[in-house]
Amino acid sequence: MLLQKEYKFWFCTGSQDLYGDECLAKVAEHSKRIVDELNRSGILPYEVVWKPTLITNELIRKTFNEANADETCAGVITWMHTFSPAKSWILGLQEYRKPLMHFHTQFNEELPYDTIDMDFMNENQSAHGDREYGHIVSRMRIERKVVVGHWSDPVVVGKIASWMRTAVGIMESSHIRVMRVADNMRNVAVTEGDKVEAQIKFGWEVDAYPVNEIAEAVAAVSASDTNALVDEYYDKYDILLEGRDPEEFKKHVAVQAQIEIGFERFLKEKNYQAIVTHFGDLGALKQLPGLAIQRLMEKGYGFGAEGDWKVAAMVRLMKIMTAGMKDAKGTSMLEDYTYNLVKGKEGILEAHMLEICPSIADGPISIKCQPLSMGDREDPARLVFTSKEGHGIATSLIDLGNRFRLIINDVECKKTEKPMPKLPTATNFWTPEPDMYTGAEAWILAGGAHHTAFTYDLTAEQMGDWANAMGIEAVYIDKDTKIRDFKRDLMLGEVFYR
Ligand code: MN
Q1: How many angstroms separate the CA atoms of 284 and 281, rounded?
Q2: How many CB atoms lie within 10 A of CB 432?
Q3: pLDDT tens across 208-249, in order?
Q4: What's the 280 CA to ligand 1 centre distance in angstroms?
Q5: Is residue 186 pLDDT above 70, yes or no?
Q6: How much distance in Å is there from the Cα of 183 to the middle of ligand 1?
Q7: Mean pLDDT on 363-384
Q8: How many angstroms is it from 268 CA to the middle of ligand 1?
Q9: What's the whole-model pTM score?
Q10: Which residues are annotated as a binding site?
Q11: For Mn(2+), which residues are the binding ones (predicted)?
């Protein structure tokens, strides 16, 4: 579900024929060795593929166009081993349409003090050639990632690994299809947006379906399929009856099992990877999808509540970018709900009515069945848990009328001081950086929403690089944020994106 393609990255080394065949043979040998070692590092989430040294306009153009055409290629990593006259790159770069990295490295780590001569200098001059190449990419205003350092340094390889996930996010963004079975909640502004512009900028396809079409798919799920999934729930989760009749409770849970299966079948059949619902527009559905949506998010589907299709697409994007990550801590939609404002213990209680992804859970997960206190349906069954501690990022994509802005806030997730036994929803609790007061002030000044797409597993840099590649504004709220500077950033955005 998460990723259908086995993506690869091409490694293209630049040089020229000025230095003779012997030098070019060494260039090829060195770049092959670097590619082998990168692949052996165990750090990269995707394979690097070596390509023959690029020395002419024709070959550069041909290689970039092959990269465009190859569906498994998610980006090109470029490195100028020697001096490569950058006018040779213009045509190829003009025609190239995928993520680009400039890896500013060199083969040797140390100056060979005893043996260095002019032949060595001419053969190993990326300090020189990479500046020539960097100039033309800047002059052409092409978005690219620059990574600097020796290829054997795990920190440097980690930066390549991190960018690879961004690049796959850029590639996969245009395959995100969001199913809307409800419109945005009446009168709510921040969950709205221009869907045509979103498709132009991000490639997202956002389509509406009558809610009763998906409700019919739910009703078509057999009792035996439903009961098998209920058994799975009862094996996997703690059941918190809280005084309810066990049989009645199980029937409520079965409604969610039927929704999970019905929704997933409908989404698969119609090729959607994200969905929005609305508690006020449920058609023939007996309960607001709670447990069902939580499980679908865990499987990799994006979700947004109250018709929030931007959050649904962002959650899906983050699920893609973290696909296959070892020791991933989780990604979910969340909502800023209520504060703890006690000095020294400040934080935001994050929750939603129901729909929090269990991938962020810490410890046991329980099923509860409680009234929703909104809408007019049965008490929905939901998964309840608290979330992991540690660093994460909360993001909000908003439509400002003339542009999209992505707000990225570094947050520190904690346990609440005391348990909250009466609260029937999953929660997270975090303090935004740089502190509660500055973080919340900056968020509000930037126009950030109450719904967020949250993850423990990506960095602000990765999401900001994605936003840059999409050609939209990104603003960062982190340990360095000062309100005066932040307001100037917002003013600069007003000018730049006019
Ligand atoms: Mn909400």
Answers
A1: 9
A2: 25
A3: 999 999 999 999 999 999 999 999 999 999 999 999 999 999
A4: 12
A5: yes
A6: 13
A7: 91
A8: 25
A9: 0.96
A10: 306, 335, 352, 451
A11: 306, 335, 352, 451
